[in-house]
C-alpha cells in the first residue's frame, strides 16, 4: 500500500522544489554587451531595460517578461533539466530507491560545489542524496577583442552591411571549451543569413540551407581567414 514517503514520492517532491526554485541571475560582461547591442536594433520599447540588465531584473514585471523566454533565462543563470528517471522495474512494486539524473548547464564562473550545495539547500530533504555523476565541464569564454573576433565581425559586416555584431553565450554545448583550455580562442561562427523557415529546420526534418546562402557563407569564411592571415 502506498504512503507519502516512498522513495519515488520524496524524489518527485524534491525535483518539484528544485525546478520551481529561483536561482539568482548573474550578468556576465559579455552577456550585458549582447543585450545592449540587441537593444539598439529592436523595435522601440522592446529592448527597454536591456542596456542595464542587472538593475532591470530587480523590477518584477521586467523580470517576469525576461525569464518567460527560455533562451534569455539561460544566458544569465545556471539551468537544470530532469533528463532521466529510474524507480521500480514493475508497476505494482514500490521501489526502495528512486534516482533522477539532471543535466546542469553552468554559467561561466560558477563553482560546481556551490551549485551542488545550493541544490541540497533547495531540496531540503536529508533523505535525498545529491552528488555529481561525472567531472563537471567548467565553461569558459573567449574575449570579444581579439584579432580573430575582429576578423569575424568584419567578414559578417561585409556579408550583411549594417549588421550589428554582438558576443553571445552559447546555451548548448560546444567543443570550443576544450580549445580554450589549451590557450586558444574559439568562437561560434555561422555566416549564413537564415529566414524563419531555415531557422526551424535546424536539427529538424529536411534540414538545409539554400545553395546561394552556402556559397555566400563560404566566401565569408574565406574573407575572414584572409583577414587573419594579414593581421
Please tell me about this protein's structure.
The chain has 231 residues and is mainly alpha-helical. It has 2 domains: 7-123, Alpha-Beta Plaits; 147-230, DNA polymerase, domain 1 (Orthogonal Bundle). It has 10 helices and 2 strands. The chain has helices at 7-20, 29-39, 53-56, 60-67, 70-76, 112-123, 147-159, 176-181, 196-201, 211-230; strands at residues 79-86, 99-105. The protein has a two-stranded antiparallel ribbon. Helix 7 (147-159) runs antiparallel to helix 10. The protein starts with 6 loop residues before the first helix and ends with a helix. The mean pLDDT is 89.
Task: Map the helices and strands.
Elements: H1 7-20, H2 29-39, H3 53-56, H4 60-67, H5 70-76, E1 79-86, E2 99-105, H6 112-123, H7 147-159, H8 176-181, H9 196-201, H10 211-230
Antiparallel strand pairs: 1-2
Amino acid at each position: 500500500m502506498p504512503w507519502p514517503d516512498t522513495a519515488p514520492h520524496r524524489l518527485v517532491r524534491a525535483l518539484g522544489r528544485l525546478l520551481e526554485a529561483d536561482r539568482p541571475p548573474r550578468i556576465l560582461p559579455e552577456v550585458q554587451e549582447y543585450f545592449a547591442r540587441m537593444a539598439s536594433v529592436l523595435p522601440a520599447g522592446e529592448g527597454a531595460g536591456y542596456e542595464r540588465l542587472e538593475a532591470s531584473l530587480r523590477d518584477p514585471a521586467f523580470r517576469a517578461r525576461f525569464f518567460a523566454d527560455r533562451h534569455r533565462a539561460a544566458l544569465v543563470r545556471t539551468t537544470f533539466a530532469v533528463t532521466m528517471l529510474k524507480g521500480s522495474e514493475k508497476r505494482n512494486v514500490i521501489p526502495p530507491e528512486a534516482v533522477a539524473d539532471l543535466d546542469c548547464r553552468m554559467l561561466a564562473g560558477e563553482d560546481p560545489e556551490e551549485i551542488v550545495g545550493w541544490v541540497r539547500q533547495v531540496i531540503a530533504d536529508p533523505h535525498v542524496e545529491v552528488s555529481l555523476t561525472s567531472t563537471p565541464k567548467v565553461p569558459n569564454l573567449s574575449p570579444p577583442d581579439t584579432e580573430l573576433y575582429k576578423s569575424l565581425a568584419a567578414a559578417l559586416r561585409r556579408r550583411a552591411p549594417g549588421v550589428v555584431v554582438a558576443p553571445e553565450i552559447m546555451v548548448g554545448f560546444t567543443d570550443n571549451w576544450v580549445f580554450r583550455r589549451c590557450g586558444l580562442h574559439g568562437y561560434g561562427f555561422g555566416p549564413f543569413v537564415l529566414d524563419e523557415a531555415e531557422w526551424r529546420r535546424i536539427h529538424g526534418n529536411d534540414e538545409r540551407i539554400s545553395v546561394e546562402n552556402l556559397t555566400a557563407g563560404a566566401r565569408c569564411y574565406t574573407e575572414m581567414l584572409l583577414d587573419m592571415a594579414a593581421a
